[in-house]
Design brief:
Blueprint: H1 3-8, H2 15-38, H3 47-56, H4 63-99, H5 106-128, H6 134-155
Length: 166
């Protein structure tokens, strides 16, 4: 019995479990693992890093769509995320040469520090701005109100005397 008889012969019981494992890894693990690498293209603290994971695990996206979507995000992140990183690196290099040079006059030195603080704060505000979803912000209070009213209706009498629904 040679090696090809073993692979092609009757004892190829391992083909089905290995195929299922490969299929599960491809469509189950790979999109999440690839996305973890893709978000590294964006700078630290960028809101898109968290948004991508929320979009990936959204209930309305199927397994096949999820796999394709990850590769679309690779293109987007390589275009947007890397350009943001390069811009930040250039700004850091430009500001690194001037940040340690303060004037001898205290008033001028304080003005330099204030302008540097304002510049750093502007950069931090750009990175920390959350992506606002105004549609969710507008509909969420009505959903919460409906949930509370349903809970009260299920539980029975309202001890707090909330006004009746519209």
């Amino acid at each position: 019995m040679n090696g090809t008889d073993f692979l092609l012969g009757g004892s190829a019981w391992w083909v089905l479990p290995c195929s299922l494992l490969a299929l599960g890894a491809t469509f189950g693990l790979m999109p999440g693992l690839l996305l973890r690498l893709i978000v590294l293209f964006y700078p630290k603290g960028h809101p898109r890093r968290e948004e991508l994971f929320g979009e990936l695990f959204a209930a309305e996206m199927g397994r096949m769509e999820r796999f394709e979507w990850v590769f679309q995000q690779l293109e987007t992140a390589s275009r947007q995320g890397l350009s943001l990183r390069w811009r930040q690196r250039a700004e850091r290099k430009a500001s690194a040469g001037t940040s340690n040079k303060l004037a001898e006059d205290p008033d001028t030195a304080f003005q330099q520090l204030d302008s540097r603080f304002a510049e750093l704060r502007r950069l931090a505000d750009q990175l920390d701005q959350p992506a606002r979803n105004t549609q969710v912000d507008a509909t969420m209070p009505s959903y919460l109100e409906a949930a509370v009213r349903a809970w009260i209706a299920e539980d029975g009498e309202d001890p707090h005397g909330l006004p009746s629904p519209r």
